[in-house]
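Researcher: Structure prediction, please.
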Amino acid sequence: MHHSLNHVRLAGLAVTVGSTTKDFIAEGLKLGRPAAQLERVARTIGLQQRQVTTPGVTALDLCENATRRLLAAMDLDPASLDAIIFVTQTPDHSQPSNATILHGRLGLSTSAAAFDISLGCSGWVYGLHQAALLCAHAGRVLLCAGDTLSCLTHPEDHAVHPLFGDAGSATILEKTGTPAPWHFCLGTDGTRASAIQVPVGGARQPAGSAPLPVIKDADGNSRRADQLCMDGAEVFNFSLREVPPAVKVVMQMAQWTPQDADALILHQANRFLVTSLGQKCGFPADKVPADLVAKYGNQSSASVPAALIQAYGPALAERRLKIVGCGFGVGLSWGAFAAELGPCVTVPIEPYSP
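Model: Predicted structure follows.
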C-alpha cells in the first residue's frame, strides 16, 4: 500500500530502555561458547551489549516511563491527548489492551480513543501511519511502541537470545495547518509468517499449566515452544528483498534522491544487515546509523525512534530534516516512510527507573 498524508507533524520523541546491561561475550562465555567464535560474531554483526528489563517490568512500563518523560519535556497535560496507539507483541495481557491500561494510568478523558496494534519491528512505521490518519480528526495523538522480547527467548538459544534488548518509545503527533506530506509504503508477506513466531501461547495452541519441555534443534539451540523462534536466513533474505524497493517507492513519492535526504533510519536488527541495506538503497554510510544495536540490542518496534534520537536528536530539536525510514520483521511485514521531521522535542534515551 502506498499512501501520502498531510497536515501532521512530529512533535516529540522519547525512548526508555531496560535497566540491566548484558554483555554479549561475557554471556556467551558463561554458556561455554568459544571466545574466538563470540568475537567473530561480535565483529560481524555488531553485538556488544544490550539493555534488558528486570523481572516484572513490561513494555507497558517502559512506554509509560517514556511518555511521562516526553510530556514533562513538552510541558503537556496528559488530558490533551486525543488518542493512544500502542504497538507491541509483548502486551501485559491478552485482554485488556496495553493502550487502555495506559489510558487509565495517565488519566485521559473518556472521549480519548485507545487501541493496540500487534506488530514487531515494522510496528513503529505502521503506528506512525495510523497516528497520522487519526490526526485528521484529532489534535494530538500518542504513539507508543515497544517490546520486552528478552522474556520470550531461552538463554541457550544462541541464534536469538543474544540479539534482543528491551525498550519502549513514546511519539507525539499533532495536527497542523501546514501542508507537509508524509509518504508511506506498507507491505506484508503472510506466506512467510512462520519465519518469526512464538508457536504456543495463543488461542490456537494455548499454554497449559505444566511447563513445556526444552527442545534442542539441529544447530544446538535450545528453546521451548512458547518462546521466540526465528529463521535467521529467511529473515535476512526477506529484508534484502523487500526493504530497498519500499525505500525506493517512498523516495520517488517524495521526489528525493539519497543526496537530498538527510538520513536513512532502518530498524536496527544488526549492524551487518543495516549497512548492507544502506548500500543497496544507495545511501552513503554516514547517512545510515548502524551502531545502535551494539549498545542496546535489537529493540523491535522501538528501534527506529531510538535511532532517530541517538543519531539525530539534537538536529531534530533545531531544524527540519528529510528523513527516510523503514521497519521490517515479524509478519513478515515492512513499512517505509519519507517525511520532513522537526523541529521537535527529543528526550535522551534513558534506562527505566520506576
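Model: The longest strand covers residues 8-17.
Researcher: Thanks, that helps.
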